[in-house]
Amino acid sequence: FDLLQYFGGYRLGQHDLAEFNARVERLMRLDPSFHRATLFAAVVRATDMEDPAGALRWLAWAERANPEEWIYPYEQGFFHYLWLENYQEAKAAFERAGRCPGAHPAWRHFAARIAELGGDPAVAREMWLQVAAAAEHPRVREAALENVRRLEAILLQRSQERLTAPTPSTS
């Protein structure tokens, strides 16, 4: 509650966030499984404090303290993707989340999309195939298969470009 009051005071213009990190770290030491507070604090650190790397350190600490909780690597995936544009780290974080018990199935969607954004349509295609195979809802399966078809077209185009590209002459 102290953390929320402190943040509220900041939002009302009563003070800055100079003590925010210390308050969060004290709370994390007292209750490392207080998920909502950790996630809230990470977002504040990344946005209001413009320190996404610091937010990622908190999420990594929480992941180490709660290795069975999928939410921490899952959120790290978003931070790597949205704030740092580090697609490899984002994909790795989503995959770690997927190895945790009870992980939300959406991790596959994000990992597949990020593999594509990171420039690897072949890996993205395989990941979308996994999404389609695991989908419980027909619309999710069809959307995944549409991504597979789109990526297959990209892979085919790249293959054709390689075949028709002029070969460099050696002199």
In short:
With 171 residues, the chain is mainly α. It is built from nine helices and no strands. The model has no long low-confidence stretch (mean pLDDT 89).
Secondary structure topology:
Elements: H1 2-11, H2 20-30, H3 35-47, H4 52-65, H5 71-82, H6 87-98, H7 106-117, H8 121-134, H9 138-164
Helix content: over 70%
Oligomer: single chain
How far apart lie the N and C ends? Answer: 74 Å
- Structural class of the secondary structure composition? mainly alpha
Mean pLDDT: 89
Number of strands: 0
Helix/strand order = HHHHHHHHH
Tell me the major beta sheet: none
Content of β-strand:
under 5%
Tell me the number of helical segments per DSSP (H or I, 4 or more residues long). 9
Uncertain residue ranges = none
Kindly provide the radius of gyration, computed on alpha-carbon positions and rounded to a whole number of angstroms. 21 Å
- Judging from the principal axes of the Cα atoms, what is the shape? elongated
Describe, in plain words, how this protein is organized in 3D:
- 73% of the residues lie in helices and 0% in strands.
- The protein is mostly helical and 171 residues long.
